[in-house]
Design a protein that fits this description.
By secondary structure, the protein is α/β, with parallel strands linked by helices. The protein has 22 helices and 12 strands.
Length: about 450
Amino acid sequence: MHPKALMDACTELVRQVLKFDHPADAVVSQFFKQHRKSLGLGPRERTALSGAVYSVLRQKLLFDHLSPSGSGPKERRMAILGFAHHQDQLAHSPQPGQGQGARDFLRSALSEPEKKWLEQCDAVDRQALLDRHRHNLPEWLVASLKAQLGDDFWAYVAALNRPQGMDLRVNALGHKRAEVQAQLKKEHIASEPTPFSPWGLRLLDKPNLSDSAAFSQGAVEVQDEGSQLLALLVDAKRGEMVVDFCAGGGGKTLALGAAMRNTGRLYAMDTSAHRLEGLKPRLARSGLSNVHPLAIAHERDDRIKRLSGKIDRVLVDAPCSGLGTLRRSPDLKWRQSPEGVQAMSVQQNAILDSAARLLKPGGRLVYATCSTMLEENEAVAQAFSQRHPQWVPLSVKDALTELKVEQAAQLCGDDGMYLRLWPHLHGTDGFFAAMWCAP
């Protein structure tokens, strides 16, 4: 594809994404579908375009600051900066051959004034910029993060701007991690064991897994190590009745089913029948037969009431702001708001109360989010304990220690009661979890 045509396409894609009408990944995917034939977008072009767009989302405040000094449409200037930033990251990639000649390709798409302007932008001392142009986060989010992280705030910011790896969960039903790692190596897919999850492998690159026999045969699923730890905390046993209350696409459902050794009964509940439909091909690959998808209208659905007091373990991976996933979904920081977070916390409290009714005495309740916000995490857990003083809070640190997770204390807050994962500390997305024993 001619460099100028690619830059024109990048400009249009940036314009669409910066409307923030829809999630960035959906906008990018739709753009590729619409223009696959007309623009001749191959894998390399799609990678370049998506990388540039996500660089714009990650560095938006800085690029907003730099772009007025240029000429032409703002979306083009943002696209140029995003393309340059993405190619610079590739040039510093540990993978051989990444990013070589990328700047020459970019320069061939630019006019002479644009080349000079980009050189001026490159010469700006990033460390001399205002904080907002360095962290590229909305101020309301900065205040919350600084209050929680203190001196670690800038390490967290740096982690958000580093390309994240891909984690796989080995299907414990009939597969061992070391054997799967060896199989992947034969397929020229390099990996290393995740440091905390006993089921995880972290890939050293981002291969096309659809070509992998290990993936097609159900030996692995893509799942962040933090998400794996949430399923591990449930500690689902053989023959039990277990509910994944907000199952979504079913990643944790599959982990729970394997932990149950394909016995007992595992309900995958969600208010979206469409999301549950997407679980079917994954179930077929996994070899699980103990999973029962159950679409519900809301958290007070009669189908939930019929299971009241009968369930051994319930996982509530609640709908949340998703602000723990900013490495992967940087548009969320511009699409979320304090009001949205507060609305989420109201919904989370209601969902948690409904899910708790499912448990039999002595059952385990796990509440989790992929958020870094206190309002969705500790505040919800503490409010539940206040409303239900008969429920016994459980120490996440003790549970992980019993499950033989190494360095369990490092995965928790100071008192060990809650799971607290951060990208700069643990190499995962931001996750939270709290646990109780039913009276």
